[in-house]
Amino acid sequence: MGVNEIAIVAGEASGDLLGSLLIRSVQAAGLDAGFHGIAGPKMQSAGARSLFPMETLSVRGYVEALGSLRKILGIRRDLKKQLLAQPPRLFIGVDAPDFNLALESRLKRAGIPTLHFISPSIWAWRPRRIRKIARAASHVLLVFPFEEAIYQQAGIPATYVGHPLAHALPEPDRKAARERLGLARDGEYVALLPGSRLGELQALGRLYVEAAKRIALARPDTRFLIPLATRETRQAFERILYEADAGELPLRILFGHAHDAMQAADAALIASGTATLEALLLDCPHVISYRVPWLTWQIMKRQALLPWIGLPNILAERTVVPEILQDQATPEGLARAIEELLANEEARAAQIEEFRVQRARLKRDTPRLIAEAIRPFLR
């Protein structure tokens, strides 16, 4: 193992993107480091070696995780064994706290420095997790400005680096995005983003398609875009279209191109998660919707500290983007919310105005700050 071999673990598509940005930040700073662990395609293209398939960790919700628990625990056990046998210079857990924090705790006890990239949402729910983070992480990289005070109070070493996406994403340009996608300059487009995970797509895809069918009836000139990241999600969505008898729906499936779809769209219907932050950074007016199994929802409600689940609303500390969740998330309700957003230019402009305020707060020289935080751990 090299002098500065870094072990790194990401658990889903959003973590894969963030992990790739971290790897490239280390490389751009001229730090001599190699990366291995659990990595998706973006991290692998940046040079990371993946020892296990990242898709195994991409499980949605408490209840759903139970079915994959044995396999996930087996991967964590095997990875822990490898890392203890050949200790890396540093371990970096990219989000995925349910997987990474326990692993970090064990490695830290063995004398391996641990860095956690992106704080778990202790400010939204599960505040007691801060004690677990203190045991697990030698240092935490924070991506939201309001997190600094929480970590300072808890006595956990942490650095606010800004949000990598705010640094990495280009200034929004709807005209250029429509040109790249070959869309009509003056057409009306709605982007559908039911989630990057296969489980999310299976849970929300039919709901979003049924909503789109109703929007198309009310606004016949509207066209729909759905970016899908993998062959599996594309195949699953094509089955959903068939089952929903949506063959006539004016919908275009994109392989990737989620950021272009958001920039090009007049409005979007988005599952709660990192995509809502990407929409904020790309000036995409949107409606947030999510549904999980009843038991998962009951657990989430009991542990929630904030009245919102969408990052644009959490950052603004007020409702900027409509959130339509659980029983309210019906095809009729979602269609109505998108139709209102399309019809109300002032509402779209108000969202975009707040998005730009928050983008300015999140934008820092993130690659430099990440590299500076990692440098002390390397030789």
CATH superfamily of the largest domain: Glycogen Phosphorylase B
CATH topology of the largest domain, what is it called? Rossmann fold
Tell me the major beta sheet. 7 strands, parallel
Topology, number of strands = 13
Keywords for this structure?
alpha/beta; Rossmann fold; 6-stranded parallel beta sheet; 13 strands; 7-stranded parallel beta sheet; 18 helices; single chain
Show the helix and strand layout:
Elements: E1 5-10, H1 13-28, E2 34-38, H2 41-45, E3 49-50, H3 62-66, H4 69-85, E4 90-94, H5 97-109, E5 114-117, H6 129-136, E6 139-142, H7 147-154, E7 158-160, H8 164-168, H9 174-181, E8 188-193, H10 198-218, E9 222-228, H11 231-243, E10 251-255, H12 258-264, E11 267-271, H13 274-281, E12 286-290, H14 294-303, H15 311-316, E13 323-325, H16 331-343, H17 345-362, H18 366-374
Parallel strand pairs: 1-2, 1-4, 2-3, 4-5, 5-6, 6-7, 8-9, 8-11, 9-10, 11-12, 12-13
Helix pairs in contact: 1-18, 4-5, 5-6, 9-12, 10-11, 10-16
Short synopsis of the structure:
Helix content is 50%, strand content 16%. The chain has 379 residues and is α/β, with parallel strands linked by helices.
